[in-house]
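Database export, one record per block. Field names are fixed; values are copied verbatim from the stored entry.
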Amino acid sequence: MRFHADLHIHSKYSRACSKDCDLEHLTWWARRKGITLVGTGDFTHPAWFEHLTQTLVPAEPGLFRLRDELDADIARRLPPALAARPVRFMLSVEISTIYKRDERTRKVHHLVYLPDLAAAKEFNRRLARIGNIASDGRPILGLDSRDLLEIALECSPDAFLVPAHVWTPWFAVLGSKSGFDAIEDCYADLAGHIFALETGLSSDPEMNWRISGLDRYRLVSNSDAHSPPMLGRETTVFDTDLSYFAVRRAMETGQGHAGSVEFFPEEGKYHTDGHRKCGVRMDPVQTRAHGGICPECGKPLTVGVLSRVEELADRAAPLRPAGAAGFTSLVPLPEVMSEIVGVGPKSKRVLGEIDKLTAALGPELSILQEVPVDDIAAHSAPLGEAVARLRRGEVIREAGFDGEYGVIRLFEPGELRRAAAGATPSLFDDAQLGAAPEARSAKPARAPAPATVPTPATTPTPAPVPAQRSAPGRGGPAGAAAAGPHGLDPEQAAAAAVTEGPLLIVAGPGTGKTRTLTHRIARLVTEHGVPPRHCLAITFTRRAAEEMRERLTALVPRQAPELTIATFHSLGLAILREQHERAGLHAGFGITEELAEHTQDLVDFDDLIDLPLALLEADPELAAAYRDRYRWISVDEYQDVDERQYRLLRQLATPEGNLTAIGDPDQAIYRFRGADVGFFLRFREDFPGARTVQLTRNYRSSAPVLTAAQRVIAPTTLVPDRELRPLGDHGSAPVGVRPAGGEQAEATFVARTVEELLGGATFHARDSGWAETEGAEGLGFSDFAVLYRTDRQARPVIEALTRAGLPFQKRSHDRLADRPGVPEVLAALTAGRSWAELRQDEDAVVREAVELLRPLADRCGDDEQRFRDELALGVEVDTWDPRADRISLLTLHAAKGLEFPVVFVVGCEDGLLPLRWPGAEPDPEGEAEERRLLFVGMTRAQRRLYLSHAAERLRHGTVRAARRSPFLDRLDALGADTVRATAAVPRPRAADTQLRLM
């Protein structure tokens, strides 16, 4: 059976798509066009997936059709020549992946096909854990292309993936802006599962035949329709059984792949090079002559498909591979009719005339390809002549560039009117004949397009041409500068050289605190003969403890298992496990957040410090035993210890003992938890023989970020002569201070800036002008963080990122055990259910909790007690995964210890930062800590930092006027090369607000 297939379309749930993109309209238009097999598109979108399950029924293997009553209703609204044609659907979706590989931002679109709804449901479940699949029918995921393919294959062995519009500059596997030089580079070890490529509107198979590396792939074409009338502007032709598996086999083997119907590639909007805003269009030779730079504005040109093919080509002329299918280039019938009658192709007049033609002659594709020209001319002489020319490939081409569609014409200007003077067509009277179409003209180009030479519509096999050069290998910019030097710098080395006695290390942000601490411990056990069992390292979060353990394992793999690396709470838990009888506890006691009264079976968080402290203070011999065990103690973030932790340390370390404290009093931000920076400041009083080393070389942040941060902290700094010297290449972008009309405008600024720095996450962002940069900084979603003072501030940011379709993850210091679904998971595990069973649980909240806990469960293996202990001690921020390519949303407190290339600190307003309750008494100590909190947030940034504030914000249930934080006043005196204030982002219009409320 020979049929047309259009397997790349979109639903009404995709951005910039018609509300008529539902199955009923798609079926009607498929019959009108002459298409038998249509992709469903967008099956990852929850609402569309539900529509598919309710509207489709199984047909041939792996395919679906409309329910009988819906199909019958459509047939009644079509002429008999079209009504009886079968239309089938195949599950399909386009996925946009944006991620970082080899220090470059990669933006690649993929078409994924699955044979049944069960596999699609599982695929959707897995992708929902990675990003927001409900915000757009074509979801944007921070996921490597190779990993997307792996997920599809795991969901069904019959799944397959086709790289979409492979040459599009911004969003394609071979695109000039953010793609690769070879398919194999993109899909790595799974590249063998790729067997077909979608050529896209701006290229045709002949162009692809210039690259020998593509010979093994079937070249397919689809419409990428955003409205039903756009169906079939490109199709793939099959001559095989009508089934999912036959289509897949044809694409994989070539048997039954009969070719494609193509745009003339010049009509595609990225065919040649140019700069749309300047009206500049160039061919590849002209682009090279100008060095790829626009002569009007001096910015880089958008390099189109023609130049990119030329760049990768290893053949001087196309060579059709043996057995490769041919292709036919067409102009859609509405565009042909539009040129004849002189009105737009979507006009009622054009559509009405095509209604008459298809009723008389059959589907549009048949009219263009198969119906005898004489039969067409009997209805319209101009149309008969146009189709004849089209079949001969005699067209006039004006190439598209930089997002601007090209124009393909069949008649010279004025030719139709001259012909009308000598003959009267039967379908159109003389007055209907026009000179040019309305809607498809490109902007005038200051550089001429390539000469237009008619070529045959169906391309013959060219003679073989010897290869001129081998295809270029992979390339990319040099790697970014390392975060720190290969060895220890002089200050770090001075700290690591102290092997005995108390030591205080004052380590500013980004100065290599963890590096210094781990290298010092490694030297102790390798160079100074210290038994690793005598070393104890204490930090404040489980995440920090894991990082320290990983680094020490890399430095001293043989000794690392004997080192004790703990948080204060896990150290207290270990002591209680060993001394449970002394503490009056059962051996298997559990942990809860808070207890009204103590039992032998449960302790709470406070008990994990209080009970060990009481045991050691009451029993000097027991304290001496632990001091003998832990003879070298290192404490990270010493500025954050509280009074009970301080007393516990004093029991473990004598005044002359080997205690190393490292931290920064200007990053003391936990007073609300009882932390007292005074213990850091009096360290030399407690340990009179202590030596002090100060780390001042910053390897994290740019000079403007450090200058601004030091300016903010200066009024209340606790480090005399505070100095942070920038090292490393982090650019020189000034710190942005951004006023906004309201919190929604502030959040929109964040989303648009992310898009701008990425070089656009969607075609809409590029075509609308939101994103004009090239995304040359090599950023991925995980390189962005949005920080805020209170958790409630996240809501407008979440809404803005969701509207933009950008993936994000929100983390806080809430306890893991309190997350929804976690208690149910624990109860199910106690009842004997397995992790595998829980991953298939009907309750979505339980499944989400399972995925949240899975890394912890994998780490603990079969040790259930360890799993429960670590879960009880863990907080949500501990599950933050830097490998997840998503924008991070964090409170300023939760961001401590992290770093990101781009940081937004939102809500820099008086009353929020510093946080102050209305009517509260002035609190100088509290305000000083708030200033330190902003200092911490600012120094999370590596390359770019944005500080924003809104003129009004919803607080305590009321929209209140706000003024910018007084902390920002310190930045006013800095020059524009360090801090750059920008114009205010206006509030949304009142009408928009009212619509949202309604």
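Remark 1: The longest strand covers residues 92-101.
Remark 2: Residues 424-486, 990-998 have pLDDT under 50 and may be disordered.
End of record.
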